[in-house]
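Supplementary Methods. Inverse-folding protocol.

Structures were first reduced to a discrete structure-token string of length 213. This string, shown here, constituted the complete conditioning input.
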């Protein structure tokens, strides 16, 4: 079957939206100057989604400290979202403090490539989009309908991207804040020799050097 899902692309402007939410109408422009994690879920009042929403909420203070807002979405009405939020508070004692988009017309879900017919005809899959303060899409992650996300990975990834932006560096596998970062490969042979001799970097070879920040 031909793949007709239009997906946004990394390092390009994230698709604009103007949508009704549990906190009133929200647009992408409202988040200018902040990071935004926009994430979709298949449906309200479902168990896996409930665990994810509670996990996002439990880490909200951490995201706030990193200048990052949270915004959920599903193909449900805002009445359903409101009822679900109240139910989570009643049954689990967790207040969901971030807004949830009511995307009944599927405009936002379609523009972000959240609708995958092979998974479900009318539900958004578990997609997560990380958008920077300039409105540029920086990361996107998809999960199957049957399995919940690991929210701490989005905390880790956000810390890594912010560190890379601030220090013009990359980060290795499973990097954690406070660990060494990877510096870009040297552009010339002389630069590589100077770097390896400087003592400023921890180099395995000319192309693989780390440093503390």
């Amino acid at each position: 079957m031909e793949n007709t899902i239009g997906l946004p692309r990394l390092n390009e402007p994230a698709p604009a939206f103007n949508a009704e939410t549990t906190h009133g109408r929200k647009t992408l422009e409202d988040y200018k100057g902040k990071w935004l994690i926009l994430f979709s879920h298949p449906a309200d009042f479902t168990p896996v989604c409930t665990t994810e929403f509670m996990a996002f909420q439990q880490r909200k203070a951490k995201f706030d400290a990193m200048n990052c807002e949270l915004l959920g979405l599903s193909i449900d009405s805002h009445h359903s979202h409101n009822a679900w939020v109240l139910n989570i508070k009643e049954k689990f004692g967790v207040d969901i403090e971030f807004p949830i988009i009511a995307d009944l017309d599927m405009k936002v879900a379609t523009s972000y490539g959240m609708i995958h017919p092979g998974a479900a005809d009318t539900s958004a899959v578990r997609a997560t989009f990380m958008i920077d303060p300039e409105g540029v899409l920086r990361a996107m992650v998809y999960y199957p309908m049957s399995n919940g996300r690991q929210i701490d990975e989005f905390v880790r990834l956000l810390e890594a991207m912010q560190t890379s932006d601030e220090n013009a560096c990359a980060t290795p596998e499973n990097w954690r804040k406070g660990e060494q970062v990877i510096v870009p490969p040297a552009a010339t042979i002389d630069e590589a020799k100077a770097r390896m001799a400087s003592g400023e970097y921890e180099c395995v070879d000319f192309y693989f050097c780390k440093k503390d920040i």
